[in-house]
Amino acid sequence: MPRGCSPDEGNRHTKFIFVTGGVVSSLGKGIASASLGMLLKARGLKVTIQKFDPYINVDPGTLSPFQHGEVFVTDDGAETDLDLGHYERFIDVNMSQKNNSTTGQIYYTVITKERRGDYLGKTVQVVPHITDEIQHRIWRLAEDDGEHFDVVITEIGGTVGDIESLPFLEAIRQFALKVGKENALFIHLTLVPYIKSSGEIKTKPTQHSVMRLREIGIQPDILICRTEKPLTREIREKIGLFCNVHPKAVIEGRDVETIYEIPLIFHREHLDNLVVEMLHLDCPDPDLDRWVQFVEKVKNPSKRVRIAVCGKYVGLHDSYKSIIEAFTHAGVENDARVELKWVDSEELEQNDPAPFFADVSGILIPGGFGLRGIEGKIRAVQYARENKIPFFGICLGMQCAVIEFARHVCKLERANSREFDEKTPHPVIDIMEEQKEIDRLGGTMRLGSYPCVLKTGTLAARIYGKPEIEERHRHRYELNNHYRPLLQEYGMVMSGLYPRKDLVEIIELPDHPWFIGVQFHPELKSRVTKAHPLFRDFVRAALEYQEKKRS
């Protein structure tokens, strides 16, 4: 395949695609953007994707997972929307703080400039100052550190008609006018509901959504229609007629078994061909062989294994989106489907854990914050350790493993984390030294990518296959080095260390089939065709445990 294709006539102009949504929220703009990005990258284009979020929070870091799902952390330490995880997984390109902007960030920047006097006494207004700042962030990403992108896809959060989204829509309207029709494309994701009682597909919500968009001054070039039923030629023609879109640009977006099938569905609907044609790109057809093979393995594995995820946000699975996808990737590499059993850690606090875990072959405790459900997680760790069930602790999950080991193996009564008990006599988990004077919550944790040196001969070193790694972090508390000698004396192995500050990053128990806790978040670096080594090996260990249990 050619290295990268340029716009026609040899120009190096970046092409811009804007993805908006209508009718209802949560239709899947992030997946649609990521899928299109994947198809364009498969054609040899250099692609990046950004998300504009209309909420006033500076970032999602202070939002409850129940409000906004997981916080996706980038290498440079940005706390971002979970859609950036989809972008990274689908196009295999690392995102940064430049790939996610919020209303809060944009207003913060403009107000800071006003306070400095940058506007020379002018009245600061939404138009042009806020809209200019939004456009600046699109341009900034297009030439990121001098690196040219052929295509920049921009997803606008929220729903057309929301008052919060209006500045972003006005900004992209202006932007498209400036770069010219040949360099900008609007894709609108909408809902075409099926009314069961009448047996009809209704196009009116889509018509009204596009009408609102056109009132703002944006005419969509392509419509992606979420629907339960196939869109007939007549339905496509009707939508096209009333929305001023060619029927071939009305793309069907039906529910599929796995989100990784969506790029293939879009390709069959000729979405990428339309984009290439409308933006006048001269590109080869996409090479989708590896993606097709991956989807086939997701849908038709030869084995199955059940793994428990024990947390306190299990009522909203988006809170653990990257973990779910990391298990999908790891399952494919083990030719297995990983069935996740969601266990509410609060329910474990007063109940026997055995019935909760009787039908699983692995237990994972993910990250989180706050006291609620902690004792249930510690009981889950104890059950996994004593019953030799493969165990994987991530961030807070690792800390719970250390607390459990200190209490029940080292016999340190009331051992705990200072996060949960400031008066604990044995703070085996303590706040990091540099965090002690911080009084603001937003953006102040240990965030982003840090190196970790692996101890030779350990399980972690075998899994990674190299002496040093880099992983992404999001936490304030660490294993207390004062207790390291005692923990090691009783058998805990500190198999990964952050060398600059001698911080424990990985712990493991050698007298166990598979027991690892990590202070970082490995799920954030798992990719479609490159499962994270820890998840891959954890699933392998769960499969081995399952076979032994059956025999």
Global structural class:
alpha/beta
End-to-end span in angstroms?
Answer: 49 Å
- Low-pLDDT parts are 1-11
Portion of residues within helices: 25-40%
Largest sheet: 9 strands, mixed
Strand content: 15-25%
The largest beta-sheet arranges its strands as: 15-14-16-17-25-24-23-20-21
Number of DSSP E strands: 25
**Can you count the helices?**
19
Quaternary structure type: single chain
Mean pLDDT: 92
Over the alpha carbons, how many angstroms does the gyration radius reach?
Answer: 25 Å
Shape: globular
Q: How would you sum up this structure, described in words?
A:
- The chain is α/β, with parallel strands linked by helices and 551 residues long.
- Helix content is 36%, strand content 23%.
- It has 19 helices and 25 strands.
- The protein has a nine-stranded mixed beta sheet, sandwiched between helices.
- The protein is globular.
- The two termini are 49 Å apart.
Quick synopsis:
With 551 residues, the chain is α/β, with parallel strands linked by helices. 36% of the residues lie in helices and 23% in strands.
Notable features of this structure?
single chain, 551 residues, alpha/beta, nine-stranded mixed β-sheet, 19 helices
Secondary-structure topology with pairs:
Blueprint: E1 15-21, H1 29-41, E2 47-53, H2 65-68, E3 72-73, E4 79-80, H3 83-91, E5 100-102, H4 103-116, H5 126-142, E6 143-144, E7 147-148, E8 151-156, H6 166-179, E9 184-191, E10 194-195, E11 200-201, H7 204-216, E12 222-227, H8 233-243, E13 250-254, H9 262-268, H10 271-278, H11 289-299, E14 303-311, H12 321-333, E15 336-344, H13 345-348, H14 354-357, E16 363-365, H15 374-386, E17 391-394, H16 396-408, E18 415-417, E19 426-431, E20 446-454, H17 459-464, E21 468-475, E22 477-479, H18 484-489, E23 493-498, E24 503-508, E25 515-518, H19 533-550
Helix pairs in contact: 1-3, 1-9, 4-5, 5-6, 12-19, 15-16
